[in-house]
Design a protein that fits this description.
about 300 residues, mainly alpha, ABC transporter involved in vitamin B12 uptake, BtuC, two-stranded antiparallel ribbon, 2 strands, about 80% helix
């Protein structure tokens, strides 16, 4: 049963991140998830200092608030003329540094387990459960990630056309009367909530990896957004399943193996993609050169 719960959690994370990752790839903001996972540290510390409690829910509230602040600051810097990658780098390093300073100043004598809060371990998912009215209703990770996935499917389903146009052509979306900024912040809010909801239980490596790698794989295999989302989710779920059994066979990190399998699938797509694959592109180039040389020979 614990095996199934771990695989289910990995599949839920992969599905949630796979959907959002497609829009992040198209917007060239793939590292926003990584930025959020580091930048939330001051929110965790401030929540602890205010509440005096190490309850994970309170810390996650603080992390979510700073995650949204991170998104706002990144967008503000971009609107000021700073390039996207530079904005992400500046915001997450600055906020992470503030968190480190707060830890060193105010929590020296306190056992504040930041590794647990920031870089959870998916192995412990079956034992970290929620009790409601004295009844154990299941692992906390499945509920939190499941709710995040539900919100993603709900909002993307309701506003799919708006998200699609805003991702491909923001200028056209604005001309059509679509509030581009609103949908940008809605998407970034979903990324923030999903990242914060996931990384406490499954680890930042798995969250960031699933946000980027499956979507990048799907990007190589199709030019249609709907197909890209489906392929991204499929690659993520397959990576979760195969990665778990690879970790079991190798006695290695489950999250690490899941992301490694996703990396292998990306490499396969990079080499063998019908349109963007390296092998087929090189074959077409060689065939073109042969035809050009043959045409030149006939002309002579």
């Amino acid at each position: 049963m614990s095996d199934f719960l771990i695989i289910l959690t990995g599949a839920l994370v992969a599905s949630a991140c796979g959907i959002l990752g497609c829009f992040l790839i198209l917007r060239r903001m793939a590292l926003v998830g990584d930025a959020i996972s580091h930048a939330v540290l001051p929110g965790i510390v401030i929540a602890f200092l205010i509440s005096g409690s190490r309850d994970s829910f309170i810390m996650l509230l603080g992390a979510s608030a700073v995650g949204l602040l991170t998104v706002y600051l990144i967008q503000m810097f971009e609107n000021s003329g700073v390039q996207s990658d530079a904005s992400i780098g500046v915001v997450f390093t600055a906020l992470f540094s503030v968190g480190v300073v707060l830890v060193s100043l105010y929590t020296r004598q306190i056992d504040l387990d930041l590794d647990c809060v920031l870089y959870g371990e998916i192995n412990y998912v079956p034992w970290n459960t929620i009790t409601l009215g004295g009844v154990d209703i299941g692992p906390k990770a499945i509920w939190t990630v499941g709710i995040a996935l539900f919100l993603i499917v709900l909002f993307i389903g309701l506003f799919y056309k708006q998200f699609k146009i805003c991702s491909f052509d923001p200028a056209m979306a604005a001309a059509c009367g679509i509030p581009v900024a609103l949908f940008h912040y809605l998407l970034m809010s979903l990324v923030s909530v999903t990242t914060v909801a996931s990384f406490e239980s499954v680890g930042a490596i798995l969250v960031v990896g699933m946000l980027i790698v499956p979507a990048a794989t799907a990007y190589l295999l199709t030019d249609r957004l709907s197909a890209m989302i489906g392929i991204s989710v499929g690659v993520g779920v397959l990576s979760a399943v195969l990665g778990y059994y690879a970790a079991y066979a190798l006695d290695a990190s489950i999250a690490g193996c899941m992301v490694s399998v996703a990396g292998v699938l990306f490499l396969a797509a990079l080499l063998g993609s019908p349109k963007h694959g390296v092998l087929l592109r090189n074959a077409r180039r060689r065939r073109y050169l042969r035809e050009a040389n043959a045409a030149e020979g006939r002309a002579v």
